[in-house]
Design goal:
Layout (H helix, E strand, L loop, with lengths): L1 H20 L11 E4 L14 H7 L2 E15 L2 E15 L7 E7 L1 E3 L2 E3 L12 E9 L2 E4 L6 E4 L1
Parallel strand pairs: 1-4, 1-8
Antiparallel strand pairs: 2-3, 2-7, 3-4, 5-6, 7-8, 7-9
């Protein structure tokens, strides 16, 4: 009986250490990489209608699952925050963590909706392929709405 009790205490202690040591998004180091999106039709140059062009100019092509979508209002503007679990990289070196947070202008908070043209819309539970460009330390969706594909 003492051995079982000792084993249970040891397991609880190990799980507590793992929970405290690892970040919020279990097992990955650091916070999720933040992908921002701004601008509307200015991002939609003619070439953006060609998925090969979008892929060629992207630094990353990532497939994953949208886990959470939430709109928030701040200083009179609404942004939608989408958390994505990365399943696979088709292009680019993997990030240290396995999650992205995608911030897109527009959304609905309460009975207030703010629409922004040519922005991708992500849906919770959907698998997507996202094309990402990196400029300096900042990441953005390539070609706006054309840089996100919903997969079946």
């Amino acid at each position: 009986m003492k051995k079982i009790l000792l084993a249970v205490i040891l397991v609880v202690a190990i799980l507590t250490l793992i929970y405290l040591y690892y970040p919020k998004y279990g097992g990955s180091s650091g916070n999720p990489v933040t992908i921002t999106q701004s601008g509307g039709s200015a991002l939609l140059i003619k070439e953006c209608s060609d998925i090969n062009y979008v892929g060629n100019i992207s630094d990353y092509i990532i497939i994953g699952t949208v886990e959470k979508v939430e709109s928030r209002q701040s200083e009179g503007k609404i942004f939608t925050y989408s958390d994505m679990l990365i399943d696979k990289y088709e292009k680019g070196s993997p990030f240290s963590g396995n999650r992205l947070q995608i911030i897109i202008p527009g959304g609905t908070v309460g009975n207030i909706t703010q629409e922004v043209e040519d922005q991708p819309i992500l849906h919770q539970g959907k698998n997507v392929k996202i094309y990402i460009r990196q400029e300096g330390g900042d990441f953005s969706i390539t070609c706006g709405i054309m840089g996100v594909e919903e997969l079946q």
